Amino acid sequence: MTAALEMDGVEAVYGDFQALFGVSMTVGEGQAVAIIGANGAGKSTLLRAVMGQVKLRAGSITHRGADLSGVATHQRARDGLALVPEGRRLFPSLTVEENLEIGANSGRSGPWTVSRVVELFPLIEKLLGRPADVLSGGEKQAVAIGRALMSNPDVVLLDEVSLGLAPAVVQDVYRGIAEIRDQGTTVVVVEQDITLALKIADYVYCMLEGRVSLSGAPTDLDHDAVTEAYFGVSA
Amino acid sequence: MTWVNAIVQGILNGGLYALFATGLSLAFGVMRFVNLAHGDLAVLSGYLVLSWAGLFGDNYWVTMVFVAAVMAGVGYLAQRVMFNRTLGDDPLPGILASFGLAIVIQNVLLEHYSATDKIIPLGDIVVRSIRITDQIAIGWYPLLILVVAVAVLAALQIFLSFTRLGRAFRATADDPSTAQLMGINYRHLYGIAMAISFAAVALAGFFNGARTPFTPLTGGLLLLFAFEAVVIGGLGSLWGTLLGGIVLGVAQSMGNQVSVGSGILVGHLVFLAVLLLRPRGLLGSEARS
Asked: Quick check: A183 contacting B, CB < 8 Å?
């Protein structure tokens, strides 16, 4: 079976600073994969590299068997990759509804529409006419996820979705992510919160200083090994 | 009454300044790009109308539409081939590239048309007017320019607010990198923005060229007026551009009322005053973070 996403020996640099050192990961079709790790481990860089927003110095990334090197970011979005970026990055001069609709700009057909997104996150319904910059953090996150779904992607990458959100809101957001996974969409979650990540994922990669330090199914990972892989010191 | 007349004439002149400024404002609003060749493109369009009118039986109005369409194509190509390569956090490469383009246009025009001044002969519409009172008359031609400027701005507003492409323009202006995640090819989109900008400045160059004689070196002053209108109105604000054009026009005609020939100076002084007291312009919003 072809993987939804395959990273092989990925290396990336920002100027003089090397952020990724030979990272390899495989994400199967319909799988939910969590990438955990501390701040600065290279998780967000990896997602940005998948979207073509960070150039690779070495290695390759393939999406459903197709090599992504030389493919522009907007084309990757049209090909079915969607990123919910860190910090949500809604468009402030667009209304919530326009923010959702612009997600459909890629022109891909599928089940996701504004009303389907409202079903997934009912709190959005009363916000549709509002400018996107007046929403709370949780509301923005729901809209950002909805906007990514509007492109009817086959792989959704979510970067630090729980960061800065109240626990009750995080639960709501993760309930939505679980629903997306259950509908067969491949989900890659970057998360600093280990407990949340282990709960939703079929497979977990832990990153430390730009490398994969541990990987496995959540049931196969023991607590001490995860702590060591996460922080770089033994528990 | 003479003051009322000065204000009326100033508002009418403001229409032309707004038309000049529209393209500059759009390019800045969408791409944060300052095109220093803007005035020279207006002059180039004026010359093209003169040169190509023969193809359309000396109908200058039809030639104008053709030239605006050609300039739109040139604008798209200029953005894709040249200006897109200068994009980045540093605005200097774009400013330098457009400055270079301005010099090239000026010299090609000098070479081809010489420095003798030219005017587009539109006939007596340019001088006809409606007499309101003994001291106030509204010229048909400035009124037409004002109407065209308002129509162009309204069309742009409708395009930006209500079309799918317009929404992509606004999203890209907000955050070009996230806009790409929506499948928006910003290089193509910037090309379309520049095409609209070039077409608008071609219209302005035509209307100006039928009213005031121009030479290959007129572009610098036209750029200055457009720039002043954009800054007075508020960077990147469409309707601010109209307001800025009108404020500049009124300032100039009031200045001329006080002392003939001091209009342009008074316009510059108002521009400086706005920069000092309200640097974001009259209708400008907070700068993008």
From this structure: no
